[in-house]
């Protein structure tokens, strides 16, 4: 696999201040320096659930009355997403 190099530019973009990095390193650098901020929950652009939905999902699952499939069908999402929500692997900030 070919490695692609990218350059992170600083305020002073002389050659001695430039650094060759991979795309992954560039993204990690931007999050580490606060240029990019991780978006959780409803702030994420792909969010399909609200905070109230997540709380209801966890409540339904903990009651023992509902199967993952039943909950997934009600919210139109996959069983694996329901499982990850109930195990605090998704929406863990709630």
Gyration radius, in Å: 20 Å
Strand content: 5-15%
Q: What are the segments in which pLDDT stays under 50 over at least 5 consecutive residues?
A: none
Oligomer: single chain
Order of helices and strands: EEHHHH
Derived from helix and strand composition plus strand pairing, the structural class reads mainly alpha
The major β-sheet equals:
2 strands, antiparallel
What is the mean predicted local confidence, pLDDT? 82
How would you characterize this protein structure?
This protein is mostly helical and 94 residues long. The protein folds into two domains: 38 residues, no CATH class; 46 residues, no CATH class. It has a two-stranded antiparallel ribbon. The longest helix has 13 residues. The protein is elongated.
Question: Can you give keywords for this protein?
Answer:
4 helices, mainly alpha, 2 domains, 94 residues
Produce a short descriptive summary:
This protein is mainly alpha-helical. The protein is 41% helix and 6% strand.
Strands, helices and their partners?
Layout: E1 6-8, E2 19-21, H1 23-32, H2 51-63, H3 68-75, H4 79-86
Antiparallel strand pairs: 1-2
